[in-house]
Design brief:
Layout lengths: L1 E8 L4 H10 L7 E9 L2 E9 L13 E2 L5 E9 L2 H11 L8 H12 L9 E9 L4 E6 L8 E5 L2 E5 L2 H7 L8 H10 L13 E3 L4 E6 L4 E2 L3 E2 L13 H19 L6 E4 L4 H13 L6 E5 L9 H11 L2 E5 L3 H15 L7 H14 L4 E3 L4 H5 L6 H10 L3 H11 L7 H12 L2 H10 L11 H6 L19 H11 L3 H13 L4 E3 L5 H7 L4 H4 L8 H6 L6 H4 L11 H7 L1 H10 L8 H13 L7 H16 L6
Parallel strand pairs: 14-15, 14-17, 15-16, 17-18
Antiparallel strand pairs: 1-3, 1-9, 2-3, 4-5, 5-6, 6-7, 7-11, 8-9, 8-10, 11-12, 11-13
Helix pairs in contact: 1-4, 2-3, 5-26, 6-7, 6-19, 7-8, 10-18, 12-13, 12-14, 24-25
């Protein structure tokens, strides 16, 4: 786990490169280095900040070059199966001078090219300069676990692991991306495509690579090297499928435990994180496990009894953190700067505190349950999509029975299941009208709509597209979509930035390609059962590994915070933030203050838009205007 930055330019940007490197030292405090290469009239700059995890020697530091001296790399992440790939490459005739996964990655690229990516089990973003083909290649892992931003303008290509590092490389002042701002403020959508919150700074999409041809001075559009595939459905029995899921999950956790530094686990008490901790114990019973958990002060949303149950089950060393509104006031600016972009809610702060706690206990690597909900039909089980699948397959009675059974679980109603279904099937005009009735207005008074119209911002409620070929597989379709677009990318961003804020590497063993591809091939009823049980196949797979008490849970809380209580108690601070921020041409601060007063008095319902106002305004002040001390 590290951070890197770089450029391709007709000018040497060495000073800017050093500034970019300094901006992300929190991602890699163990070793920092810059390297500049020259190709004809073009400068190529690489900078790397290292957090040493595998092969702690200086010989594994970056920028790293191949033995032949023709390949150069900056790399962020881990290749967990590097030992196996290294053995394969040795049989081909390659020799190695380090024990690092970096050298294995670069050698694999040298031998197989893009085809090597399918071999990797891990998380990665990297940039390779190939002197033989005269190309620079930017690569991102299948799910976008590791970040990779780029800016391609004015005959320059700038790139980096941290959006603020890329800003340091730019010669012009950063400007907000107005479409992203609108989508976030109005609909809460972000990290759902290749655009960032900064105009002209984009993401390399998950599962993609981009190449810059030095001879022609042209960058080719991103190409997919992996996409979720739901075209085939396995006919394996439920019990046999559960056994295979168990094998693949334990294999992934085993790979994720490879490290030359101490490892812990983030434990929320839910099925996913509990499974990770219990798998760690099963694979290495003698190893003491250190767990890190956020505990809400409000008993209604506290997971403490579930956390305690797992800690006792595996005899872990528990570590807990608590927080209140005064804490978030103290930490908010730092968290916003570390995230680099606005984010969804105060639950991300709970995660922030968990990684802070891990760091204070000298843990460098943690395992996390992220990604399981998007693979196993978690959350509420995607009832609308399941109903649509059944109806498309003309199983009308089954659909009625499913809605009834689904509603038997806590916090659910039959009417909700059919509302989800209607949300998928209503025409766009009716869908927008329904959203408006619920107070989700496309043209809120607190936005300068005329200004945004002049900038050609699109005012729509975005819905995931449905493809004809996925008829009858709507749950798997939305899960596949959420893996690389709307859903998981934002959660992975939160985890990466929060963990790296405290120089902790967060690993996500559910996101292993063999496990993911297998789960996407299973029948939908294996994921969300006919009785409405979410993650059905995984609960079965974990019998004997995780306590039945946790596998039989019918609720899910996770790192939930009392967001309403916190934000309402911060009324005076919030108003001060809103009034003191520089004028933002597309935001009407006076209207926001009026609506916030309506929320305080109960005239209008509290929802996540309150947080989004605060978060965006503070981010704009800190990042766009640069009014911060970091």
């Amino acid at each position: 786990m590290c951070g890197f930055a770089g450029f391709i330019s007709k000018n040497t940007l060495q000073n800017q490169l050093v500034a970019a490197l300094n901006q992300m030292q929190h991602r890699g405090p163990d070793y920092q280095k810059t390297q500049t290469y020259i190709y004809e009239d073009t400068y190529i700059g690489f900078a790397h900040a290292r957090l040493s995890i595998i092969d702690l020697s200086d010989s594994a530091s970056q920028p790293f070059e191949s033995t032949c001296g023709k390949y150069h790399i900056v790399f962020n992440g881990e290749i967990y199966n590097y030992i196996e790939i290294r053995k394969e490459l040795k049989t081909i005739g390659f020799n190695f001078r380090t024990n690092s996964d970096t050298e294995v990655l670069l050698t694999a690229w040298q031998h197989w090219g893009v085809a090597c990516l399918q071999k990797f089990i891990g998380m990665f973003a990297f940039v390779i300069y190939d002197e033989i083909t005269q190309t620079i290649t930017l690569v991102r892992d299948a799910f976008g676990i590791k970040p990779l931003f780029y800016y391609n303008k004015n005959d320059e290509l700038l790139f980096g692991s941290d959006i603020r590092a890329v800003i340091k490389l730019m010669t012009e002042k950063p400007q907000p991306n107005l479409q992203v701002a609108y989508d976030y403020l109005v609909s809460g959508i972000y990290d759902s495509n290749d655009m960032s919150f900064i105009q002209d700074i984009n993401h390399v999409p998950p599962g993609s690579f981009m190449q810059y041809n030095l001879a022609k001075k042209v960058i080719h559009p991103s190409q997919k090297w992996w996409s979720p595939n739901i075209s085939k459905t396995t006919s394996i029995s439920f019990n046999d499928a559960a056994q295979r899921v168990k094998e693949l999950f334990l294999e992934s956790v085993s790979y994720n435990l490879r490290s030359d530094v101490p490892i812990g686990a983030a434990l929320s008490g839910g099925v996913d994180s509990s499974a990770v901790v219990c798998a760690m114990h099963l694979l290495n019973p003698e190893q003491k496990i250190h767990t890190f958990s956020y505990i809400a002060n409000d008993e209604k949303i506290s997971e403490e009894k579930w956390v305690d149950g797992i800690n006792q089950y595996v005899n872990a060393s528990p570590n807990k953190v608590y927080a209140d509104a005064s804490d978030i006031i103290k930490d908010l600016d730092h968290m916003i700067l570390m995230q680099g972009e606005p984010f969804g809610g105060t639950s991300i702060y709970a995660q922030y505190r968990v990684f802070q706690l891990a760091k204070s206990n000298n843990i460098t690597v943690t395992l996390d349950g992220q990604g399981a909900d998007e693979l196993l039909a978690g959350y509420s089980g995607y009832p609308g999509h399941r109903l649509l699948s059944l109806i498309e397959n003309k199983k009308y009675i089954n659909a009625i029975k499913f809605a009834f059974k689904w509603a038997q679980w806590p916090g659910r109603k039959q009417s909700q299941a059919w509302q989800y279904f209607l949300g998928l099937t209503l025409p766009d005009c009716m869908y927008s009208f329904a959203r408006k009735l619920k107070g989700r207005e496309l043209y809120p008074n607190w936005l300068n709509i005329k200004f945004l119209e002049e900038k050609e911002v699109k005012f729509i409620h975005k819905r995931a597209a449905r493809r004809k070929e996925n008829k009858g597989k709507r749950v798997r379709e939305i899960l596949a979509n959420s893996l690389q677009y709307r859903g998981l990318p934002s959660l992975l961003r939160h985890g990466d930035r929060n963990s790296m804020a405290f120089t902790v590497e967060s690993r996500v063993p559910f996101l292993s390609l063999p496990l993911v591809e297998y789960l996407l091939s299973l029948p939908e009823e294996y994921l969300i059962s006919d009785k409405g049980e979410t993650k059905s196949i995984f609960r079965k797979a974990m019998r004997g590994v995780v306590p039945d008490s946790h596998l039989d849970r019918k609720d899910k809380i996770g790192f939930e915070t009392p967001q309403f209580t916190w934000l309402i108690s911060l009324e005076s601070e919030i108003k001060q933030w809103i009034t003191s921020t520089p004028n933002i041409p597309f935001i009407n601060k006076n209207e926001i203050l009026k609506e916030f007063d309506d929320v305080i008095t109960g005239t209008k319902k509290f929802d996540n838009r309150v947080w989004r106002w605060i978060n965006y305004i503070r981010w704009y002040t800190l990042v766009i205007e640069g009014k911060n001390d970091a």
